[in-house]
């Protein structure tokens, strides 16, 4: 375990804890100071790096064969969709603290916040991708994106660039960390009927995060990537179904079956590909599904299940209505 990492993470999570312990100040501290500072630093880094002489490497492997699919699956590691399910709760609570209690108004403000956040994330990721591209030929063989960013900014700004990147990483992780810890605290406080207070849950999640952070990025990716491959599809499915609920009116049954399929199939896929655990006929059946090699075996079956359950529920509803009408007649 690195002593420097231990000290850094201790200070980092102490600061995160201090912010989370006063949720009423969350919007002011994160929205007015941390996030704008983060965006300004990223923009500065982008314009400095992008102005360098370009040394672009040719794509290889999956980035050459199926760049869209590879990029989509690599996006799992950002955890944005999973985090969004939690952050939606945080945003709703923050809106209510401004005195907005009408649910329609809360939803309207959340939609606006979501659209703005999505646009900003798109711009940020476009800038980061461009930074990685500019010097990609010079940094072949690096283990992760953090190292690519570090080498790129060092090439552009020297040691000052590394200090700048440290601030960017700190602010980026701090805003995310604060959001996740606070949302987790509020969620589990309600889940367990206030048996433990919000502050207690915040302390628990902060301590857990502090311990996990000291495993290092590569180890965390090694642990988290298989988990993300299992939980990310269901997060995407729930988000898409939730967005389209108002005009497609999915039944509870559709949600249950869609969730089961979008968790079950990735689980079998991860067991086979990552842990080399073959479940006989079940694994063979999953491997025969479209887009298994690309890691998207869950996509079409989930869509089919949603359509079939929706049609079945509608058909049963019509039969029930006809039977009721017949009895009344």
TrEMBL record:
Main location: membrane
Residue stretches spanning the membrane: 6-21, 33-51, 71-92, 113-135, 155-181, 201-217, 223-243, 255-275, 295-316
Location within or outside the cell: Cell membrane
Any GO BP annotation: isoleucine transport
Keywords, in A-Z order: Amino-acid transport, Cell membrane, Membrane, Transmembrane, Transmembrane helix, Transport
Keyword Cell membrane carried by entry: yes
Cross-referenced Gene3D superfamilies: Hydantoin permease
Membrane association type: Multi-pass membrane protein
GO cellular component, one term: plasma membrane
GO terms of molecular function: L-isoleucine transmembrane transporter activity; L-leucine transmembrane transporter activity; L-valine transmembrane transporter activity
Pfam families in the cross-refs: Branch_AA_trans
UniProt superkingdom: Bacteria
Family assignment from sequence similarity: Belongs to the branched chain amino acid transporter family.
Function in brief: Component of the transport system for branched-chain amino acids.
Protein name: Branched-chain amino acid transport system carrier protein
Name of the coding gene: brnQ
